[in-house]
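To: structure subgroup
Subject: Chain for Friday's discussion

All,

I'm putting the inputs and outputs inline so they're searchable in the archive.
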Amino acid sequence: VIELIQAALQHGQAQPWMYESLGIAMELEGHPKSDIERVIMSACDFSSSPEELMLIANYLSHLGIDSRALEVYRQIVKVAPLHYEAYALGLRAAQRANDLAGIRWATVGILSNDLPKQQQAITSTARQVAKSVLDELKAKGETASHDQYYQELEKALARDVIIRATWSGDADVDLIVEEPGGTVCSLHEPRTTGGGVSLGDDYSSYDKQSSTGGNEQYSCAQGFPGAYRVRIRKVWGDVVAGKVTVEVYKNYGSKNQKYEKQRISVPDDSDAMVIFELEQSRREEPLAAEKLQVAINRQEAISQAVLAQQLAGASDPRIAPARGAARDTDLARRLSL
């Protein structure tokens, strides 16, 4: 296998899968890790997607070459910022390699982004590791490094928008946020390209027999400026006094932080609405480009739904005989002429 793949490479017939296969074969043959590392890193040049790079990084970690794996994880988030898993796996690789710079990069990357409720363990781990690093730098007297890392973490924990809805009573309430770019964040769409993340419904964490209540939270690390439309929808049950408390933080963690709180009535048959304007944000991409992409995605979804409906109709057995009968009638009419 090694000779076959090497011959293909020498004759300009390289394919992305060859490098990983070559690395596995060399590992089985007992080749030095340095040779395998060189082969696997060459595969990065032929990778056409972040998923392929993730496989390469995982394989490097499997070989115990965590320093190289960390380099690939860094490359992944550069080309695909939404691949937050690279930060989490990069943190593990950095810890195994005892790479302080890598640990700082990974923890800042994790804490700069919100993760859905089922992935909160990653955020908790990053917080614990970050605190340990700060304590270690302080104990060593490395004041400059400590202060710089502290500032990086403060910036990472800032949020452009935080929305929290709380209620009392044996009921379930949904928080739905329409973002300026046209994207909608909810439990059904927990992460949007507009930067929003639904952090989940905490109703399940309460004792349903106690009728204590629940809460939902939306967070946007870097959102677009503009109007945010918050819809509060009662799914079922009885909300005490028929009202939900909505808290809004704008530019959370910055000197421009603003806080608003209001109690709104939630009807049984329609959504309650809260609208607010985000004047300042840290998002750098133009809003117009986001609106255009959302419109394109929506049109593609509609087109696919229409096509699926048409295909389903074409294969409907109730329709096919009628079409066949019509053809037979038409043929009989023409033959009679």
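Points worth raising on Friday:
Residues 287-314 form the longest helix (28 residues).
Residues 203-211, 318-324, 330-337 have pLDDT under 50 and may be disordered.

D.
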